[in-house]
Design goal:
about 200 residues; mainly beta; 5-stranded mixed sheet; 4-stranded antiparallel sheet; about 0% helix; about 40% strand
């Protein structure tokens, strides 16, 4: 921008204000983007399919650089979900802590919850977002604070389980009515997460 500098020149005959203009150029630098802490609701076992992420899943924004905001470049997985609660994969490979996921590959990023798990705030992991503004002359291209992504997993009815203690019964032809000892005691309740 420009600034106006006023100087005063004094001599025995004259006092006057003489304006002078000084031009200065301010070069913008990239400011840190932001992610958003997210909670996603899915069904137990996610109906048999992994949860698939999208670029919008991480709440990317770059308001400080507006109106020349930058775009999402990649998501950095800082910490992983607890192993007992599920697994993050990029394609067929497990994601590792610190791994950067380019924006073009985010649709290949999935979360598979642990079998029969349900409850609130499960599969929690943390992440940062990076924009495409670069780090020239002191710019900052990744979010200053790691955000959290977690799942609220809704319980679903699991199939009951029946295990016969006497799976094989040998009978002669036309034996008449028979009593099957201990047959009905083979009924099991199913996983602890079952609701029926």
């Amino acid at each position: 921008g420009t600034d106006a500098l006023f100087e005063q020149v004094t001599d025995p005959r004259l006092v006057r204000n003489q304006p002078a203009t000084v031009s200065s150029t301010i070069t913008p630098v990239n400011d840190a983007p932001f992610g958003t802490t997210e909670r996603q609701v899915i069904n137990e076992d996610n109906d048999g399919t992994p949860f698939v992420f999208s670029a919008s899943s991480f709440g990317f924004s770059d308001p400080v650089d507006a109106p020349a905001s930058n775009a999402l470049l990649e998501v950095i997985i800082v910490t992983l979900p607890p192993v007992a609660e599920g697994v993050l994969r990029l394609g067929a490979a497990n994601v590792t802590a610190g791994q950067a996921i380019p924006v073009a590959l985010i649709p290949s990023l999935t979360f598979t919850p642990a079998a029969n798990s349900n409850g609130l705030n499960l599969g929690s992991f943390t992440f940062r977002v990076r924009d495409n503004g670069g780090v020239a002359i002191g710019g900052i291209d990744n979010s200053a604070v790691a955000n959290t992504f977690a799942f609220d997993i809704t319980a679903v009815n699991d199939a009951p389980v029946f295990i016969s203690l006497n799976p094989t019964i040998n009978l002669s032809e036309d034996p008449g009515a028979q009593s099957l000892s201990n047959f009905i005691t083979g009924i099991a309740t199913g996983p602890a997460s079952a609701i029926d």
